[in-house]
């Protein structure tokens, strides 16, 4: 009998090599419980959380918690069905209307996760006759959506409008639809996309443009509508996709657009149709978090201040970070061993960040990915920077 | 030199040898993943460099069938002829 797991031998060797050299398994960190948005108990110790995506701290929003409790008590804890069968409650429609209004778009579809929002939107929009042009550093959900769609996939160099235009020019005789996909903020590096330049290009070449604002929703733009709002190019973005599991602190995803054709996506997007819809208490909490976010624009100001403080602090202690000041601040290291040692030392000294390893990182180099929250105090940021500095000195960096 | 599969194969080998980590004894029959120890991301990034030389774009699904340097050269040649 063929060993069904034989194909994972290479992965097993890499995994065992990594975990053997590390005092703890980086893939099995347990946050025993959060104490607040910025502090959790890990290995029995109070630990500063600098590796979440809880940018506005709304996972702990009082209003969202109350809404979830009240809704669970009155409606139960699940829908037990698909959006196209028994899984659409009044609340789902209400959230879609609220999001469409927030983004100033005609239509909104809510998905059960952010991953499924990309899978469901991309696979419904294009098929084998079409071409997808993806930023080379796109999230796995975009690549997976592309695969599910069956469309031809062409990568363009990360954040490079000239390269994108070159590739579109090569497609001038292609008769299918062309869809460009870029992210607002890139999750691993914190880089911000030049969406305004992509809008110019897509207009000249008769293509559509989809922006994944997962990490920029609630974070950038005067109202929190993301990079497109910040760069004043929202009208040129055909489809905006995002998630509730970052700035809104819950779970779920969405796609908003002005294209009327999107209504039929509800009948052909398999990741939308063939899964259970979000439970009512999650929808209620998400709506409350959205209202909380809209009512407290100062959270975004605080987040930007905190991002600048962490970015400058890490640079000051001599670490290599990306050039963009955004809530994702990634410290680039040279070797996996160095990154694993550094990450363990940070955790032992009370700071949790994400250890990101190749091939999930650009340039084949490991990253210590930090994310900042509006909920971090200046003292917490300074403490994290000080620990980074001590560990860097210990490793001779 | 990039008008034939052999010419493109030679150009690919020249580019690969510019990377000191690549074994010195590669030829057109060398397997990209096994012999060159490239992972899937490294293959995609390397193909991007070649694309610019030939002014073609290789759709990702085409990469799934490519094992050797000559396979890649053949794929690029086909795309270049179709694009011309």
TrEMBL record, chain A:
GO molecular function, one term: serine C-palmitoyltransferase activity
Cofactor(s), names only, from the UniProt record: pyridoxal 5'-phosphate
Residue ranges of domain Aminotransferase class I/classII large in the record: 47-387
EC number: 2.3.1.50
Superkingdom, natural source: Bacteria
InterPro entries per record: Aminotrans_II_pyridoxalP_BS, Aminotransferase_I/II_large, AON_synthase_class-II, PyrdxlP-dep_Trfase, PyrdxlP-dep_Trfase_major, PyrdxlP-dep_Trfase_small
Pfam families in the cross-refs: Aminotran_1_2
Key words, A-Z: Acyltransferase, Pyridoxal phosphate, Transferase
Family statement drawn from the similarity comment of this UniProt entry: Belongs to the class-II pyridoxal-phosphate-dependent aminotransferase family.
Protein name: Serine palmitoyltransferase
Species: Gluconobacter oxydans (strain 621H)
UniProtKB/TrEMBL annotation, chain B:
Transmembrane segments: none
Any coiled-coil regions, as ranges: none
Pfam families assigned: PP-binding
Domain annotation Carrier: ranges: 3-80
InterPro entries linked to this entry: ACP-like_sf, PP-bd_ACP
Record protein name field: Acyl carrier protein
Gene source species: Gluconobacter potus
